[in-house]
Design a protein that fits this description.
The protein is α/β, with parallel strands linked by helices. It has one domain (36-168). The protein has helices spanning 47-62, 92-97, 113-119, 136-148, and strands at residues 3-4, 71-75, 128-131, 155-159. A 4-stranded parallel beta sheet has the order 1-3-2-4, sandwiched between helices. The longest helix has 16 residues, at 47-62.
């Protein structure tokens, strides 16, 4: 199971000087999947399915083959503030289409390295798998440091966003049944 990237891999202090791997690490290849305003409840448009599409496009854009990828770092949180409703069952067609981890919400309400690897058999050479905190930049920073440190050579960085029905960011004023405006 992938662990969280240790805090020691992030440069969070002032005065550290020039990064020791400067000029030795490059980011190449980008992939993204189609986006819709709201999820249509089909497995083909789940956050996991779209992550697979984006990963395959990134590998192609980088001009490499899947077996050349030896690392994956991802931010497992996919929420935009709208959460999987408590008590709602995961659709049977989603469960039938994808290999599942111990967490049935994996691939539909979150992403893990384990879920991605279980559903992308072409990634046969992964030796480094880590999770970052919520944001894309932390996943990128962790992967870049891992490449610089020699823990991985060719590393995927993944951040997925789901788009369930409902309002985004259901905290503060957004948690209320209606949101007050200037009028």
């Amino acid at each position: 199971m992938a662990q969280m990237i240790p805090a020691s891999m992030y440069r969070t202090q002032e005065g550290l000087g020039v990064w020791e791997h400067r000029g030795k690490v490059a980011a190449v290849g980008i992939g993204h999947a189609p986006t819709w305003r709201r999820w249509d409840n089909t497995p083909e448009t789940s956050v996991g399915a779209l992550a697979i599409i984006a990963i395959r496009k990134a590998i192609e854009d980088a001009g490499i083959t899947p077996d050349q990828v030896d690392g994956i770092v991802l931010a497992p949180d996919t929420t935009t503030g709208s959460y999987w409703p408590a008590g709602r069952e995961v659709p049977a067609d989603f469960l039938a289409m994808f290999k599942q981890t111990d967490d049935l919400l994996d691939g539909i309400a979150k992403l893990s390295a384990e879920w991605v690897l279980a559903n992308m058999p072409e990634l046969t050479n992964i030796k480094y798998a880590m999770h970052a905190t919520t944001c894309t930049s932390m996943a990128m920073a962790g992967a870049i440091q891992a490449v610089g440190d020699g823990l991985t050579h060719t590393c995927l960085v993944v951040k997925g966003w789901h788009n369930y029905l409902g309002r985004y960011y259901q905290g503060g004023a957004n948690a209320e049944p209606t949101v007050a405006g200037p009028g």
